[in-house]
Amino acid sequence: MRAKHATIALSILMGMAACGGGGKEAADQGATTAGKATDETVAASAPATTTAAAAGAVLQTQEVNMPGVVADLTEATRKEGVLTVKVRFRNTGTESVSESFTTFSDYSSFYVTAGEQKFFILEDAEGAPLAPKDLYVSLDAGETTTWWGKFPAPPATETTFDLVVPNVTPFEDVPITDR
Buried-most residue among 8, 67, 164, 173 (CB within 10 A)? Predict the structure, then answer.
């Protein structure tokens, strides 16, 4: 088969057994909020890759600074103090594309805002992000791949949020599904 498989370069530097319930607080400038990772949170944070045939419901679609590529927000769920988001990158063009959203585990440019607060990617007990270590998108025409991230959940009084991902138009007023 001549088509390459969609790829996300993932490296998660965490041991599930070592997470033990406590989490390292994320810190950054301005008004920030951080949370703690639990064993259940880490166990539920396995990476996801999809094909166009397995596409789920789309909450919102935004443009990506890559020719022919769009980002579909497919999940925004709040459960036990954690907000899980999934973004599917989809190549709608006719050419193959590759782009690195290099993070080197620095997720300060990936965040959620709700109300007057800013929430950064959760970290495990060793300080590893509860998201893929790096985001590299390499897609042939028609292919998709999914990035995910876990954030501290906004308070229950907040029913929507905004998501900022580098090189993607911000997702705004995204409804939160409570589980």
Answer: 8
